[in-house]
Amino acid sequence: MKILVINGPNLNMLGIREPDIYGKQDFDALQKYIRECADALSLKVTLFQSNHEGEIVDVIQAAYGVYDGIVINPAAYTHTSVAILDALKAVGIPTVEVHLSDVNSREEFRRHSFVSLVAKKTIAGLGFEGYRQALEYFA
Ligand code: DQA
Fold this sequence. Notes:
Rossmann fold; 5 helices; 5 strands; 19% strand; globular; binds 1,3,4-trihydroxy-5-OXO-cyclohexanecarboxylic acid
């Protein structure tokens, strides 16, 4: 089973960015963790990160007919992007949404997610473990 893991803007700044919220481990550590989890679950993963909404839309469109599942942390685009929601709807690939932090216990604007409208499941507030649970959903 082939899974595309998409991380949105500023997640490449993990370790530097608000460590009290997102933890001290960096983005390389997250990618290594995701690869190890995928191996343990016998899933093939492709990892993609972008700070650009259109690039994320492009990679979702290109996933059509190629991937069996998408794990996405759309980061700030979670709360703003109808384009990412529409791309996920267009390809119809089962999607699990992940957030490192507990978006529901932070600022009001983080409580709304466009991606949740299409996601089979949303996992928030578990740090790196959320990605493991998302992969486990597909396994
Ligand atoms: C995030 C939560 C978002 O609100 C925020 O904009 C992010 C990261 C998370 O993983 O907790 O960049 O998606």
